[in-house]
Recover the amino acids of this structure.
């Protein structure tokens, strides 16, 4: 059985693959995943209050449910992150109307 961190990493690879299927090639995100793994990539991206261009692109494509932020706030993955990281992911999604859909 894969660890929770491995499951999250696989979900992040899925985010990249899904974006690619919609002709959005998130190469920077993929490079980060390859170098740091899913959990560390998410932590790095959540360390700033800036909304990344990748999240905006997923919003444009109506794929917020397939964003890193959407996975971070899932109850099953929350043990991997701090309360602050989860709150930041939630804030970004809220700003983009994710919870109103």
């Amino acid at each position: 059985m894969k660890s929770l961190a491995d499951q999250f990493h696989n979900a992040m690879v899925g985010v990249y693959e899904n974006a690619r299927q919609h002709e959005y090639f998130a190469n920077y995100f993929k490079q980060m995943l390859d170098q740091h793994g899913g959990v560390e990539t998410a932590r790095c991206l959540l360390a700033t209050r800036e909304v990344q261009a990748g999240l905006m692109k997923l919003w444009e494509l109506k794929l917020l449910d397939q964003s890193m932020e959407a996975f971070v706030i899932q109850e099953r993955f929350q043990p991997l992150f701090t309360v602050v990281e989860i709150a930041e992911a939630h804030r970004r999604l809220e700003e983009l109307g994710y919870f109103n859909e």
The two ends are 34 Å apart (CA to CA). The mean pLDDT is 92. Helices lie at 4-21, 27-46, 53-60, 68-72, 83-95. Residues 4-100 form one domain.
